[in-house]
Each structure stands twice: as structure tokens, then as C-alpha cells.
Amino acid sequence: MGYKDVKAQVLACLKDGAVSHQERADIDVKNLLATGQVSLDDVATIIGRSRGSQYSSSPHHVVDDVEVHIIKTKYGDEDWYIKWYFIEPNSVFISVHH
């Protein structure tokens, strides 16, 4: 799956509210979406403005069959790091922070 397809799928999930969050340590600083400090619309805007050169992917550290998607981009005056994977029909966010 290429960047444009990944971007379209995650934006559709955000629009539909098909979102969940991976449990993790430091969730209060590493996943601002899970804690309500940023909204689904905020994350959609940040991802929507990202470019392919700001995107990468790699296998999940526990489940090799799951591809993890990462966007590192600048929005406003802040550098954002957004990391997620897809478990149909949801996008599962691991990190959303600046």
C-alpha cells in the first residue's frame, strides 16, 4: 500500500470515528489524541497536509504481519509525530505528539 492509499484510508477512519488506541506507557504525553488534547479533526488536518517524503512504514515490533505507518511533519510551529496501524475497520493510534 502506497502513501496516497494509506493517507486516504486513515483520513476516512478519522472522519468516520473508526479509531482506537494502543495501550502504552506514557500515553499522556505520547498519544495526545487518546487523552483528548487533540481532536480527530486536528489529526486529520495534520495528516492531510503531510507529504509522501514525511511518511515511512515498518513492521510492528510484536506482530510482523502488521505494517506500522509513521508521519513526521511540521504543523503550525511544532514538529508532529503520528504513528498508527490498521486493524479493519479501525486505525489504531500508537503515538500522536509534538
Task: State the gist of this model.
The protein has 98 residues and is an alpha+beta fold.
What characteristics describe this protein?
98 residues, five-stranded mixed beta sheet, single chain, globular, alpha+beta, YaeB-like fold, 36% strand
Strand order of the biggest β-sheet:
1-5-4-3-2
Number of domains: 1
What is the quaternary state of this protein?
A: single chain
Strand content: 35-45%
End-to-end gap: 26 Å
Radius of gyration, Cα only, in angstroms?
12 Å
Sequence stretches where pLDDT stays below 50 over 5 or more residues: none
**In sequence order, what are the helices and strands, one letter per element?**
HEHHEEEE
Shape: globular
Q: Got a strand count?
A: 5
Described by strand count, sense and barrel closure, the largest sheet is: 5 strands, mixed
Task: Name the helicity range.
Answer: 25-40%
Question: What is the correct CATH architecture?
Answer: 2-Layer Sandwich
Question: Would you tell me the structural class of the helices and strands?
Answer: alpha+beta
- CATH class designation: Alpha Beta
Average pLDDT taken over every residue: 92
CATH topology heading: YaeB-like fold
Q: What is the count of DSSP helices, taking H or I runs of 4+ residues? A: 3
